């Protein structure tokens, strides 16, 4: 799940810190905060309530849910269900999958259609080509990219939710859930926490943020959006309640050769790194959608991306930064902002 989400600077109660902070002031609510290294990043859960023991149990259940789902969706763990499926997918054919994996794969196919193919989990072969490029320092050839693209495309994957099967229509295919898994896992963990009766909560999974309710006293959760080219520069401050935010960009994982930077986010249409943006921040009602759209809009850019939001995702809002360093806001984004913006 090593999908980089590092341009969200936590400004208030969600400052990432190793270890736990427990207890409360005599006159205030209990707070429980814990950070663990999971899904390839630091995950911080911050909870408020009246009973510290209840908060601790809820946080533990949230972390357990993250670990459980990672064992299903991780492409880095050879024992995960997804990794085992990818081994089989290389042969092509139809294979049984769990109901949980069938559900997210089916959702991914729907999102692929709704984003005009910009979000595509079948880019696994292309991801492998560019991962090898980053490791070797050698630019992949056009032939390598063309051959990898023959093994990609949402039309080459189908899912039967009734039978819980996945069908791969080309040999050599592999799936990469990096553009959705962290958001999906974070959202699922939040549901578990709320199931323990905790309503004031935030999960920060390496910058994928899910916020529930408000902080004590009714204050909203405050986040800062960093300049992708200058981490000390905060471009905007956003306030959240019962919402999620995710950011994707080319500033942490990329391949650069002869002055050209290739983002780790693959454009399924070209086989190269997404070139229309350097950073995309999406606010949505849930992190599954925020995570997915941050990837899709990285590929589409502001013009096409905002059209997709307007048509299919009116509940989501985005800030897109293009290579010319210009900031593009979708119409609804600024209502989440506090103070001045650029």
Summary tags:
9-stranded antiparallel β-sheet, 17 strands, 27% strand, T-fold, 342 residues, alpha+beta
CA(first)-CA(last) distance:
32 Å
Based on CA atoms alone, the radius of gyration comes out at 20 Å
Number of helices: 7
Strand residue percentage: 25-35%
Strand order of the largest sheet: 2-3-4-8-9-12-15-16-17
Give the strand tally.
17
Report on this structure.
There is one protein chain. The protein is an alpha+beta fold and 342 residues long. It has a domain at 81-168: ApbE-like superfamily (T-fold), CATH 1.10.3980. It is built from seven helices and 17 strands. Strands 2-3-4-8-9-12-15-16-17 form a nine-stranded antiparallel sheet, covered by helices on one side. Helix 1 (52-73) runs antiparallel to helix 6 and helix 6 crosses helix 7 (287-312). The chain is globular, with a radius of gyration of 20 Å. The relative contact order is 0.15. Mean pLDDT is 89; it is low at 1-7 and 9-25.
Précis, in short:
The chain is built from 7 helices and 17 strands. The protein is of the alpha+beta class and 342 residues long. The relative contact order is 0.15.
């Amino acid at each position: 799940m090593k999908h980089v989400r590092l341009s969200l600077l936590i400004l208030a109660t969600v400052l990432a810190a190793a270890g736990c902070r427990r207890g409360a002031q005599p006159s205030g609510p209990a707070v429980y905060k814990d950070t663990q290294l999971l899904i390839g990043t630091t995950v911080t859960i911050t909870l408020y309530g009246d009973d510290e023991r209840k908060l601790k149990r809820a946080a533990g259940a949230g972390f357990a849910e993250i670990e459980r789902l990672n064992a299903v969706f991780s492409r880095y763990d050879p024992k995960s269900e997804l990794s085992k499926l990818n081994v089989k997918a290389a042969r092509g054919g139809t294979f049984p999958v769990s109901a949980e994996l069938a559900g997210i794969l089916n959702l991914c196919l729907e999102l692929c259609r709704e984003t005009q193919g910009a979000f595509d989990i079948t880019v696994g072969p292309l991801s492998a080509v560019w991962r090898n490029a980053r490791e070797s320092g050698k630019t992949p050839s056009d032939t390598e990219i063309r051959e990898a693209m023959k093994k990609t495309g949402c039309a080459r994957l189908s899912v039967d939710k009734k039978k819980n099967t996945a069908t791969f229509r080309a040999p050599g295919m592999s799936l990469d859930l990096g553009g959705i898994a962290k958001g999906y896992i974070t959202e699922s963990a939040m549901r578990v926490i709320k199931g323990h009766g905790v309503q004031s909560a935030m999960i920060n999974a390496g910058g994928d943020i899910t916020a529930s309710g408000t902080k004590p006293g009714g204050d909203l959760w405050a986040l800062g959006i960093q300049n992708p080219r200058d981490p000390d520069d905060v471009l905007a401050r956003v306030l959240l309640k019962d919402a999620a935010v995710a950011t994707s960009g080319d500033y942490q994982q990329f391949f650069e050769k002869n002055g050209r930077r290739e983002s780790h986010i693959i454009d399924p249409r070209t086989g190269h790194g997404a070139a229309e943006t350097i950073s995309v921040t999406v606010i949505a009602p849930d992190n599954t959608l925020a995570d997915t759209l941050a990837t899709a809009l990285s590929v589409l850019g502001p013009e096409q991306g905002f059209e997709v939001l307007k048509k299919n995702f009116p509940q989501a809002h985005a800030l897109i930064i293009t290579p010319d360093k210009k900031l593009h806001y979708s119409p609804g984004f600024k209502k989440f902002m506090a103070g001045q913006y650029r």
